[in-house]
Amino acid sequence: MHAYRTHTCAALTSDNVGDTVRLSGWVHRIRDHGGILFIDLRDHYGMTQVLCDPDSAAFSEVEKLRSEWCIRIDGEVKARAPELVNPKLPTGEIEVFVRGVEVLGASKELPLQVFGDQEYPEETRLKYRYLDLRREQMQANMTLRSDVVRSIRQRMWDQNFREYQTPIITASSPEGARDFLVPSRLHPGKFYALPQAPQQFKQLLMVSGFDKYFQIAPCFRDEDPRADRSPTDFYQLDMEMSFVEQQDVFDTIQPVMAGVFEEFGGGRKVDQEWPLISYKDAALWYGTDKPDLRNPIKMQDVSEHFKGSGFAIFAKLLEQEGTEIRAIPAPTGGSRKFCDRMNAFAQKEGLPGMGYIFWRDQGNGMEAAGPLAKNIGPERTEAIREQLGLGVGDAAFFLGGKPEAFERVAGRARVVIGEELGLTETDRFAFAWIVDFPMYEKDDEGRIDFSHNPFSMPQGGMEALQGDPMKVLGYQYDLACNGYELISGAIRNHKPEIMFKAFELAGYGEDEVRKRFGGMVNAFQYGAPPHGGCAAGIDRMVMLLADEANIREVILFPMNQRAEDLMMDAPSEPSNEQLRELRLRVLPPES
């Protein structure tokens, strides 16, 4: 007999009745029923009920067992009485009578319980992550993650991609976040960087003639944490293709993503039509470049109805350049109570409030109500209602000013309205490609910088870069799903002269570009093919598939909100010997 087990804790069925078996696992819970001890024995695969009565030679040892002790038992498989069969368990038709037991690993008193659904502080869960991971939901999440990665790999191979590994220690590169720097022992005073993404290497692979590349790539970014983002490292499906246009990338990655969500989505609907929405339209309609299309609400510009109107706040606002008034339709939201609730939401977001109009039935016809309706009059109110396609029992909310000042709040209001009114579907994955991103943006001091990926090809090539930089669009694209960005990518700028000009507009001279990206710039001088690709965030994909709200629920050993590993005590202070070897000195923190 095997030293530890003949079967897993999910393998025994009624076909095994009468067999002598050996199982190993953890004591999930113990129940004492009139002197007979019942133990749910758990391993990675499932659960088996074992029992021991006072007639067993092992009874005195079984009495000593406690939750989460790791044990091995020998016993005989017996059929449960028909009324005691548990249809929820694969092993629910049988139980194992214990004839012998050995403790493989005793457990101290537990800082958190594995059995049950108790909530524990995040600090406790992360410090004792190895216990937290024993819980049923965490086992399911990590198994899901592993299965998703396997499926992605197979789907990429099926499309004639090959997986290649790119370096982990490399040079610093601007990817939109801070680098993690690694000091060099052999070159004192110089530093490597952990890659924010394999961006330059995968482009160099295209120059090298590999045509189709993918990788399940670790990426490292020193970022501020969010619920949907790890503060240190994450994994992505990284891919690149040669001799392609934007649509070719879409046609390649869409069946991979759709297939994964269909396979692991638990029966939820997966949209097959993925609309292309310009960045400009996404900002107008949804207030974000990551729209949740399960929510049918589309915001609209209604500025023309308030110009010169009796509502002085909006009328005067529109006299200023670059301002507009946007409406958020709220079908079925036509009650003063709901309008007041949304007004309170706006105030919590730091705004004075939101104007609103709601339409109600007065017996002899429809009436527009609310402060705005009184100020702008029935003709303008009716024009707004018709533009928004609203009717009795509906409402609309209004925000005004420069779009960059209120757009995000408007987007959040749209989400809240959709959820509170039950308009947002919950059993669906809704995808959309966001395209036509502006290449550049201005910071608070008016300086021009890249707004997205600096290595993207500008639409129109060199000619587009001769005009106003703020009007230049890039061949850049994101895939949004249910309010999250899942993919970001671009058709790359593979021509050195266009690259130098693009960086020049962002304040980088040719010498600096050659210094920072010399490897790629030099490579592009030797017959670089047109190429493009994208990267899909695996952690975020699994988070959606697992129906979790926090990305840490699908990462084995995540950091906390302060980018600390409480289990391994990282980051930690280096020893003086390490600092001397690296020729480094640590400054005391600023008081």
UniProtKB/TrEMBL annotation:
Keywords from the named record: Aminoacyl-tRNA synthetase, ATP-binding, Cytoplasm, Ligase, Nucleotide-binding, Protein biosynthesis
Positions of the UniProt region annotated as Aspartate: 199-202
Annotated Aminoacyl-transfer RNA synthetases class-II family profile domain residues: 144-558
Predominant cellular place of this UniProt entry's protein: cytoplasm
Subcellular location: Cytoplasm
Record keyword Protein biosynthesis present: yes
Entry superkingdom: Bacteria
Reactions it catalyzes: tRNA(Asx) + L-aspartate + ATP = L-aspartyl-tRNA(Asx) + AMP + diphosphate
GO biological process: aspartyl-tRNA aminoacylation
InterPro entries, sorted: Aa-tRNA-synt_II (IPR004364), aa-tRNA-synth_II (IPR006195), aa-tRNA-synth_II/BPL/LPL (IPR045864), Asp-tRNA-ligase_1 (IPR004524), Asp-tRNA-ligase_1_N (IPR047089), Asp/Asn-tRNA-synth_IIb (IPR002312), GAD-like_sf (IPR004115), GAD_dom (IPR029351)
Binding positions for ATP per the UniProt entry: 221-223, 485, 537-540
EC number(s) on file: 6.1.1.23
One MF annotation (Gene Ontology) recorded for this entry: aspartate-tRNA(Asn) ligase activity
Main EC class the enzyme belongs to: ligase
GO cellular component terms given for this protein: cytoplasm
PANTHER family named among the record's database cross-references: ASPARTATE--TRNA LIGASE, MITOCHONDRIAL, ASPARTYL/LYSYL-TRNA SYNTHETASE
NCBIfam families: aspS_bact (TIGR00459), PRK00476.1 (NF001750)
Function: Aspartyl-tRNA synthetase with relaxed tRNA specificity since it is able to aspartylate not only its cognate tRNA(Asp) but also tRNA(Asn). Reaction proceeds in two steps: L-aspartate is first activated by ATP to form Asp-AMP and then transferred to the acceptor end of tRNA(Asp/Asn).
Known partners and oligomeric status: Homodimer.
HAMAP family associated with the record: Asp_tRNA_synth_type1
Family, as annotated: Belongs to the class-II aminoacyl-tRNA synthetase family. Type 1 subfamily.
Protein name (record): Aspartate--tRNA(Asp/Asn) ligase
Organism: Limimaricola cinnabarinus
Lineage: Bacteria, Pseudomonadati, Pseudomonadota, Alphaproteobacteria, Rhodobacterales
Protein encoded by which gene: aspS
